[in-house]
Amino acid sequence: MTQFSDQVAIITGAASGIGNAIARQLAAAGVRLALIDKQPGRLDGEDPSSDRVTWLLGDITAEATVEAMVNQVADRYGRIDILVNSAGITGKTNIQSHQVESDDLHNVFNVNFFGSFLMAKYVLPQMLKRGYGRVLHIASIAGKEGNAGMLAYSASKAAVIGMTKVQGKEYAETGITVNCLAPAVIRTALVDGMPDEQVRYMTDKIPMKRCGTLQEAANLAMYIVSPENSFTTGFAFDLSGGRATY
After folding, report:
1. Which of 23, 82, 197, 227 is the most exposed place for a label (fewest CB within 10 A)?
2. Active site residue 246
């Protein structure tokens, strides 16, 4: 098992789904966690009396809130080693582009792209102070290929991939790596809330003909944010059951 040497991680969207799965893995590895979500969450086996897990309720699309939360974590633990941007929404799906509502498009971009940008904006200076950091943005295969009926989601995740490539280059000489994870369909509550037709459309494109699991996503994320991942940055790691081979 990777030795994370008592590192500190911030994870957004940690109350459920991929964010929660990554949080559980990191907690088991001895990482101290600051978990951000808009709703209360819990980790399996979490000790309420321990100071190793801190839950923060906040809106990652509000810049002042993000700045305050990051400062709170830095003040409490004295360091931030890992940032995982997992908070995300799909918006309205199974509709064509001319049916997309502007408000819905803005809302999806605010959470999926702008929220990830803001978190990185305020965490990166903390990492620069120590000359070390691991940033993982959760993107999607939809951001690479585009899923019909999911313009807002696909475009926002494409923006996340673009941001990853930029940040990977910008901080390549600082000891900080910035990568993203581009899953195909992972069985989460978010996917369970999609129309069956939309899920079938996405799953049919996967050569393995199944959804990925939360455990598979967390396993790959653990390597990406580990000290061992020291020579890969600005990269989109695929988790697609064979769908993406580039």
Report:
1. 197
2. no
Burial class (CB in 10 A: 0-12, 13-18, 19+), 45: exposed
- Candidates 77, 122, 132, 153; catalytic one: 153
> Which CATH code fits 8-184+218-232?
3.40.50.720
Enumerate the β-bridge partners of residue 35: 11, 55
Using an 8 Å Cβ cutoff, are 206 and 239 in contact? no
- State how far the Cα of 8 lies from the Cα of 53, in Å rounded to an integer: 10
Long-range contact pairs involving 20-25 (C-beta distance under 8 Å, separation at least 24):
20/214, 21/214, 21/215, 21/217, 21/218, 22/84, 22/86, 22/217, 22/218, 22/221, 22/222, 24/218, 25/218, 25/219, 25/221, 25/222
Scan for tokens 């309420």, then name that residue.
Answer: 48
| pLDDT, tens only, 42-95 | 887 676 657 899 999 999 999 999 999 999 999 999 999 999 999 999 999 989
Beta bridge partners of 181: 138, 237
Residues 243, 211: contact at Cβ < 8 Å?
no
List, for residues 52-65, the tens digit of each pLDDT value: 999 999 999 999 99
Domain ranges of the chain: 8-184+218-232
Give CA–CA dist 51/73, Å, rounded.
Answer: 12
Element housing 11 (H / E): strand 8-12
Place of tokens 């990166």: 124
Side chain identity, residue 201:
Y
